[in-house]
Amino acid sequence: MDTAPAVRARGITKCFGDVVALDGVDLDVAPGQIHGLVGPNGAGKTTLLGLLLGLAVADEGELEILGALVGRALAAPGGVAGFVDGPGLYPALTARQNLAALAALRGVGTAGIDDVLAEVGLTDVAGDRVRGFSLGMRQRLGLAAALLTKPRLLVLDEPANGLDPAGKKHVHGVLTRLANDGATVVLSSHRMDDLEALCSEVTILATGRVVFSGPLGKLAAENRELDYRIRTSDPEAARRVAAETSGIHDLNAAPDVLVVRAQVPALDELVARLVRDGIAVRELAPVVSPLEAAFLALTEQEVTR
Ligand SMILES: Nc1ncnc2c1ncn2[C@@H]1O[C@H](COP(=O)(O)OP(=O)(O)OP(=O)(O)O)[C@@H](O)[C@H]1O
Fold first, then answer.
1. 248: domain range?
2. Ligand 1 binding residues, C-beta < 6 A
3. pLDDT band at 302 (very low <50, low <70, confident <90, very high)
4. pLDDT for the residue 291
5. Which of 51, 127, 237, 299 sits at 20 to 30 Å (Cα–Cα) from 29?
6. Nearest CA among 74, 116, 77 for reference residue 95
7. Nearest C-alpha to atom 31 of ligand 1 is from which residue?
8. How many whole angstroms from 230 Cα to the centroid of ligand 1?
9. pLDDT per residue as tens digits for the range 173-224
10. Are both 198 and 237 inside the same structural domain?
11. Residue-wise pLDDT tens digits, 20-38
């Protein structure tokens, strides 16, 4: 397994004319991680992923990929595969022919084609022309194309775009397996639930700047108060206990469910007291996930700054 960071970026700046797409971005991604990039439209996610894929070069800063410093010349870093702005495919060719063409271009041989088609669940349509493929099928084929080179760093821009729930589950399974085998995945998504299901760490970008980067758990622990929905065996009694617990604000949202605003330590205390009083906690969930709450708070701050 690799020990060097899969990605180490320091002070990366990238401009398009007057537009500052990335503004002093630092990023650390350890090997074997699935790292999510999230941010509002135009935050710089695709630009950053493009730099990792060697599709563009930073104006300033230092970028190391898989332990090697990326130079100033445009070149795909070794061991890296993926796509931004949708996978580039030939519509007139079949799925298998697309992969064969890519294998020839990259000099990797065609032996792995059936395996990667099976991996993404496209074996049955391998002989069909891509022209007739749905968006989700194209995304899967793009993933298969990236897998063909057995990348140590897989870079994907919105890989779940167009996938139905089963397709998404399948792709998540593929990415998780890859990471378990030691590969690193950096992906962008607008779906907080996908990122929470898949990623160990996330980076939140806003107007080209990193406003958070780290483990998802840190967001929950560090973040300000969140709203939590708590279903119990006795909502009336639970409400009384909540009123007596400091740091808990009852939002009085519904009669049969307790919705409170609290930080994690106060919430822990409330749960302990409920249990002590013999009130069963049947469900406890944030109304808005920690990632979504942080996303809204941190990116709103940036936008209005
Ligand atoms: N080739 C380009 N030429 C000019 N401006 C560009 C180019 N690529 C990106 N930009 C600008 O850079 C900024 C960042 O764009 P980028 O596509 O990286 O954002 P994003 O976070 O991926 O957005 P989205 O969520 O909408 O895909 C935007 O203001 C965009 O208009």
1. 223-304
2. 16, 19, 21, 39, 41-47
3. very low
4. 84
5. 299
6. 116
7. 42
8. 41
9. 999 999 999 999 999 998 888 899 899 999 999 999 999 999 988 876 665 7
10. no
11. 999 999 999 999 999 999 9
